[in-house]
Amino acid sequence: MRQEKTIIWGITSILLSKTSQARICAVSLQFSTFNCVLKTVDIELIGLGDRGMTALRSLLRIGEKLPVRISALRDTDVERVRAAQRTMDNGQLVRQAHHKSMVNGQWSMVDVVKLTYICTDWQSHARLAIEAMRAGRHVAVEVPAALTLEDINALVETSETTGCHCFMLENCCYDPAILDAIRRIREGEIGMPIHAEGTYYHALDGRWTPWRLEMNRHQRGDLYPTHELAPICMALGITNGQWTMDNGQWTMDNGQCSMDNVQWSMVNGQWPQDRITTLVSMDTAAFTGPSAYEQRMGTAAPDFCNGDHTTTLLRTALGRTIILRHDVLTPQPYDRLFHIVGTRGTITVRDDGSQSHSALTQTMNERLIGALAAGKPLDFGVRDMAVWCAVTPLSELSIKRGFAPVEWPL
Questions:
Q1: DSSP labels for 226-292?
Q2: What is the pLDDT of residues 279-313, one digit of tens each?
Q3: Which domains does the chain have, with CATH numbers?
Q4: pTM, 2 dp
C-alpha cells in the first residue's frame, strides 16, 4: 500500500491510502466494547465556528445535569480557541489546542478524552473521526460524516473494529413533530407506508462558506441529503438504530415498539425492516451557481458544476419509493419536508425555517451524553450514518452516468 501525505489542521500526517470500495464491508459488531459505562464523558471539541460554538453552549448546559466535561478545544484559528475558552465556566479546566492532530501515529491530545465531537468543514469529518476512533475515542460528527463511499466504508470498518461509537449528529431525527408523525405511522394511522418525500430548500445567499462553494463548483449531486433522508428511514424501518425515546414518547427495542405501553405491530408482530436497492438522480444545469460563486469569491467560475436543483429517486427492497429534493441556490423560502404516503392516508410535517434547531440539537446531545454515561446503545449507529451519507456519492455517480439507475451498495 502506498503512503499518502495529507495536511490536516496544519500538521503533516501519514495516512495509509485504501482502494475505493463500492460496498460497506461486513464486520461483526462487538457490542460489549461499545457500551462501557463512562463515569464522566470527557469531550474534545474540534471546530469552533458557528456550529462548534452552538455545540459548546449545548454541552455546557448538559453539564448542569449529566456527567460531561469539556476537556479539550481544537481549531485551526487560535483566536477561536481563546473565544471558546472565554465561553467556558471559569471553574472548568480545559486544554486549549491549536493545530493539533495525529503525528507519527501518536495522538497528541490529552488522554482523558472519551468523546471527540467534530464540527469542522465537511471534507475533514471522516479523517478526523477515523483518527479519534483509532485513538480509542467515541466520535460524534456533524453532518455529513462522509462524502465518498471509501470514507463511509472506512468509518464503518474503524468503528466496528475499534469498538468506538461513530454517531452522526443529525438533529432532524429529534424534531418533535416528526417523532410524533412516526409514532402515528407506527400505530397504523395511515396503514403501510409505501412512499416518502423529503425536501431541503435553503437559499444560502450570504451564508456561503468558501469550502462549501468549492465543493459545489467541482461536484454534482445531492451534497446534503441527511436532513431529509434520516427521518424518512426512521419512518420506513430503514435503520439499525435502537430507538429509546422515553418519558411518554415512543420506544423501540429489538424491533418491538411501544407508545405509553400500547403495543403495536405491522407485519407478524414486528416493524418490517427494509433497505434501499436502487438510486437515480437528475439535476438542473448550473443556472445560478456561477454568479453565487463570483459574488462570494470575487472570481468567475465558468466551470461551476453542481446544478441548482437536484432530485433523487430511491427504491427499496419492499417496493417502496423515496423522493429527495435538494436546492440551496435558488431564492425560494426555506422548506424541510417530511411527507409519508400510506395505504390508508398521508402524514406531512413541514419546517418553514421558524423552528429552533438549537432545541433539536439540545435533545440530541442530551440523549447522546446520557447513553454514553450509562453505557446504553445510542439511538443511531455507524451503519445508519452509512445509509444516510451514501446518497451524495451515489447521486454524483448516477448523474455522471447520464442520470442512470445505480445499484445501492450497502
A1: HHHHHHHHHHHT------B--TTSEEEETTEEEETTEE--SBTTBPPP--EEEEEEEE---SSHHHH
A2: 999 999 999 999 999 999 999 999 999 999 999 99
A3: 3-169 (3.40.50.720), 172-355+379-407 (3.30.360.10)
A4: 0.84
